[in-house]
Amino acid sequence: MEEVSASARTPADFLKSIKGKPVVVKLNSGVDYRGILACLDGYMNIAMEQTEEYVNGQLKNKYGDAFIRGNNVLYISTVKN
Amino acid sequence: MADEDAATVKEPLDLIRLSLDERIYVKLRGDRELRGRLHAYDQHLNMILGEVEETITTVEIDDETYEEIIKTQKRMVPYLFVRGDGVILCAPPLRQ
Amino acid sequence: MLFYSYFKTLVGKEVTVELKNDLAITGTLHSVDQYLNVKLNNVKVVNEAKYPHMMSVRNCFIRGSVVRYVQLPPGSVDIEILHDATRREARG
């Protein structure tokens, strides 16, 4: 149980460990989505809550829930609070 | 499997399932946005939307001042099949 | 298979297919396959002035992957059937 959370060893472990945490999702287009990661699947489709959309660093939109199609995802990164 | 799972989000596509027959917002490649009622979808995010409003955003550069002029073009379509590969993001309608 | 099945019910109806290169073609749906490739008959390009080279085209095959939208004839969209089929498909 413990070893997965702090020192995740595989990408899959990392993804498992960040559910429910605040994340930044960067798309290939450069757009960033900041919010709480609700869940994801094998295609890297992502469900997020309290999502904010940033284009060129500027807040452009807010979504209560958002589904992001996995093929657009460049990376998922954890953030503080 | 059947009843208790119907209203929970265990995988991302559940979010879309819960939006069936609701108005949703879809962001597409090519600076296009759709708002419409979700009537059908599949795992590729192919969809059929009803009472659809499409917004196309374009940026033009003013010849003299070189300022960016952002223009939006809107149109209504009664029923639209949307191919999933163009989808970037789906969200239930803005509720703030 | 949901949309393949649905498009099969539209054979013989008039649809407008909008491609990713912005070309929009109206025509009678002749056939569709599992990739959602389609064949249209009696085609007419929506913006003929912009695409004059398409004037002589009567029928065409469109690869599914280049389609952005298909505008559907309102009379042939049975919402109840689509909902049921979607729920069945979502269950796997």
TrEMBL record, chain A:
Record flagged with keyword Nucleus: yes
GO BP annotations, alphabetical order: maturation of SSU-rRNA; mRNA splicing, via spliceosome; tRNA processing
Segment forming the signal sequence: none
SUPFAM superfamilies in the record: Sm-like ribonucleoproteins
All residue ranges annotated as the Sm domain in the record: 10-81
Keyword list, A-Z: Cytoplasm, mRNA processing, mRNA splicing, Nucleus, Ribonucleoprotein, RNA-binding, rRNA processing, Spliceosome, tRNA processing
SMART domains: Sm
Subcellular location: Cytoplasm; Nucleus
GO cellular component term of the entry, any: sno(s)RNA-containing ribonucleoprotein complex
Spans through the membrane: none
A GO MF term: RNA binding
Source species, domain of life: Eukaryota
Main location as per UniProt: cytoplasm
Family to which the UniProt record says this protein belongs: Belongs to the snRNP Sm proteins family. SmF/LSm6 subfamily.
The name this protein goes by in its record: Sm domain-containing protein
Species in which this protein is naturally found: Elliptochloris bilobata
From TrEMBL, chain B:
Keyword terms: mRNA processing, mRNA splicing, Nucleus, Ribonucleoprotein, RNA-binding, Spliceosome
Pfam families according to UniProt: LSM (PF01423)
Localisation: Nucleus
Residue ranges of every copy of the Sm domain listed in the record: 11-96
Top-level taxon: Eukaryota
GO BP, one annotated term: mRNA splicing, via spliceosome
MF terms (GO), sorted A to Z: RNA binding
UniProt cross-references to Gene3D superfamilies, sorted A to Z: 2.30.30.100
Main location group: nucleus
The keyword Ribonucleoprotein appears for this protein: yes
Entry's Gene Ontology cellular component terms: Lsm2-8 complex; spliceosomal complex
Signal peptide stretch: none
Family: Belongs to the snRNP Sm proteins family.
Protein's job: Component of LSM protein complexes, which are involved in RNA processing. Component of the cytoplasmic LSM1-LSM7 complex which is involved in mRNA degradation by promoting decapping and leading to accurate 5'-3' mRNA decay. The cytoplasmic LSM1-LSM7 complex regulates developmental gene expression by the decapping of specific development-related transcripts. Component of the nuclear LSM2-LSM8 complex which is involved splicing nuclear mRNAs.
PANTHER family with a match to the protein in the record: U6 SNRNA-ASSOCIATED SM-LIKE PROTEIN LSM3
Name by which UniProt lists this protein: Sm domain-containing protein
Organism, as annotated: Elliptochloris bilobata
Classification of source organism: Eukaryota, Viridiplantae, Chlorophyta, core chlorophytes, Trebouxiophyceae
TrEMBL record, chain C:
One GO CC term on file: catalytic step 2 spliceosome
InterPro entries documented for this protein: LSM_dom_sf, Sm, Sm_dom_euk/arc, U6_snRNA_Lsm2
Sm domain segment(s): 2-76
Alphabetized GO MF terms: RNA binding
Swiss-Prot/TrEMBL GO biological process terms: mRNA splicing, via spliceosome
Keyword hit for RNA-binding: yes
Segments passing through the bilayer: none
The UniProt record lists the keyword RNA-binding: yes
Location(s), subcellular: Nucleus
SUPFAM superfamilies in UniProt: Sm-like ribonucleoproteins
Swiss-Prot/TrEMBL keywords: mRNA processing, mRNA splicing, Nucleus, Ribonucleoprotein, RNA-binding, Spliceosome
Main location: nucleus
PANTHER family in alphabetical order: SNRNP CORE PROTEIN FAMILY MEMBER (PTHR13829), U6 SNRNA-ASSOCIATED SM-LIKE PROTEIN LSM2 (PTHR13829:SF2)
Function: Component of LSM protein complexes, which are involved in RNA processing.
Family of this protein: Belongs to the snRNP Sm proteins family.
Name of this chain's protein: Sm-like protein LSM2
Organism: Elliptochloris bilobata
